[in-house]
Amino acid sequence: MIKRPPQKTAPNISTLNDLATLANYSLMDSLNCDPDATVNGHDHAPRQVFTGHYVPVTPTPIENPEYVAHSKNLFRELGFADSMAQSADFVRVFSGDIAFVPEPMRKVGWACGYALSIYGTEYIQQCPFQTGNGYGDGRAISVLEAVINGQRWEMQLKGGGRTPYCRGADGRAVLRSSVREFLAQEHMHALGVPTSRSLSLYVSKTEKVRRPWYSEGSHSRDPDTLVSDAVAISTRVAPSFIRVGQLELFGRRARKKEHPQAMEELEQIVLHLIDREYGDVIDQNLATSEKVVLLAREFRGRLTSLVANWIRVGYCQGNFNSDNCAAGGFTLDYGPFGFCDAFDPQYQPWTGGGHHFSFLNQPEAAERNFHTFCSALRPLLTAHQDRLIELDEIQGDFPKAMQTQMKKMWAAKLGLAAFHQALFSELTTLMMQTSVDYTVFFRQLSTVPDDIGVLKKSFYKGSTLKTDLEGMDKRWEEWLTKWKTLAGIISTTDATATPPRAHEELSQEMKLVNPKYSLREWFVVPAYQQAAAGNYSLVRELQDVMTQPYAEQSQDVEKKYYRLKPLELFEVGGSSHYSCSS
Ligand SMILES: Nc1ncnc2c1ncn2[C@@H]1O[C@H](COP(=O)(O)OP(=O)(O)OP(=O)(O)O)[C@@H](O)[C@H]1O
Ligand SMILES: [Mg+2]
């Protein structure tokens, strides 16, 4: 889990100077700099990076930045004054200009290389040099590490311009994708799902880039037009941004003995990861081989729990490659993600994502990433046969660990003490046959209804299904009765059975697991469209609503955001599906 600093009553960081005094650059100070890089970070042209863990690089500021939003929650947790988000020097830094920052902040940021495996298969084709040495943070640039209230945080700009890993692209992010990522990170945090966090979002009033996108109302699968979008910089925050793909890059180099320091660089990055993300659970005095095994066990626990949480809240990552899998076990890279509307095990909003990264296949995708992770660690254990066997066991037991988490999650979603396979299978069959809204269904069920009328609020086909309507109703009724019996709401004839639970108690419990509000794409589309016209009120409204996803909220909010997706919005390009997210 991402550690949360204790809540502060009053902000103690109200200026950039205050923040600068907390700067503490562990990555730049303890890992290796690319020896071919210019130290001032002014080298932005795509090139191969053969060794070293990072490249110093300066961000390219966006022109004429304008404040869009900041996360009040994260500001509060960090002890930042809200006023700072709109103060001139803070805006300058987090819209990409760090040339003026006060010491000990540095006038240079950094980007990291990583490797890519898709569903467990190693790729180098995405690298322009066909070697893998040109692949990494192409538009993500970290500008600060700071220790705040005893917790280390890294602050990373997304869309901060080109880096040596940009592969010929512009290094920019458009407002649309930045609004999506900004809102989603704070929503996920409020849902209780580990994630990188959102700090701030600024848009350029004048700088635009062209991106392929969908024309209004298009049903095309691929973008059918080119649009000119304003560029933006969002800043995300996490204990580190180390990805499985990053370990993989050094693991591959060590395995292939690509250069004399390859093994040492692998060990350094792994120990650095442990320090940054696992310091509280792995004793720093242990030998590397012991640490590595503990790391694999701990990451397996975090990853399986993370993916079960994704499914609990209806989230599909969409592109769960090794380079989009944070080694700290939290959600990273809100590109082609989506929250499902109608339940579909194969839900996948990204047209390039395929079945393998679809909603209920995420446990398999996670397993592939975990294999990639273990393969990256293996070179460090070649002299420790017993540890290698332990690592193999940890890897081999992934499906069991994943299944345990999934069963625990489904049981909790259904308010049951234990998972019940038959009840669950019948439910998913019914949900698909009836076409049921995932979020609304589980929240309606959480009211512990007397009859299926209440559940019908979540049925897309409820009122239109002519064929066998009665048959379906009967099956739903039988299912509900069985569920209530298992949930302990209806007493059985068995005199030794536990007494029936109070409806209210069960309902309260379930409402803590089943959110009322989820960030569906059709809520976000008008928000970024209005933002493009300079009106940020809907972005801020969504920020408010989606950071309290379990609360009932007002009737107005309920009417607007607790409802089925309008049928005319299904199959619409850019909303129901998208082919690119940058
Ligand atoms: N406009 C761009 N300019 C430069 N590089 C880019 C751009 N868009 C994507 N990339 C790079 O392409 C690769 C794959 O893109 P992907 O969409 O997974 O990442 P991303 O959304 O940019 O970033 P992240 O994973 O950091 O959230 C990444 O290495 C990313 O940095
Ligand atoms: Mg990515």
Automatic annotation (TrEMBL):
Gene Ontology terms, MF aspect: AMPylase activity; ATP binding; magnesium ion binding; manganese ion binding
One Pfam family linked to the record: SelO
Catalytic activity: L-tyrosyl-[protein] + ATP = O-(5'-adenylyl)-L-tyrosyl-[protein] + diphosphate; L-tyrosyl-[protein] + UTP = O-(5'-uridylyl)-L-tyrosyl-[protein] + diphosphate; L-threonyl-[protein] + ATP = 3-O-(5'-adenylyl)-L-threonyl-[protein] + diphosphate; L-seryl-[protein] + UTP = O-(5'-uridylyl)-L-seryl-[protein] + diphosphate
Metal-binding recorded as keyword: yes
Signal peptide: none
Required cofactor(s): Mg(2+); Mn(2+)
Record: active site: D323
Alphabetical UniProt keywords: ATP-binding, Magnesium, Manganese, Metal-binding, Nucleotide-binding, Nucleotidyltransferase, Transferase
InterPro entries membership: SelO
Binding site for Mg(2+): N324, D333
Enzyme class: transferase
Residues given in the record as ATP binding sites: G136, G138, R139, K158, D170, G171, R236, R243, D333
EC number from the UniProt entry: 2.7.7.-, 2.7.7.108
Similarity field: Belongs to the SELO family.
Role played: Nucleotidyltransferase involved in the post-translational modification of proteins. It can catalyze the addition of adenosine monophosphate (AMP) or uridine monophosphate (UMP) to a protein, resulting in modifications known as AMPylation and UMPylation.
Protein name, UniProt field: Protein nucleotidyltransferase YdiU
Gene transcribed to yield this protein: ydiU
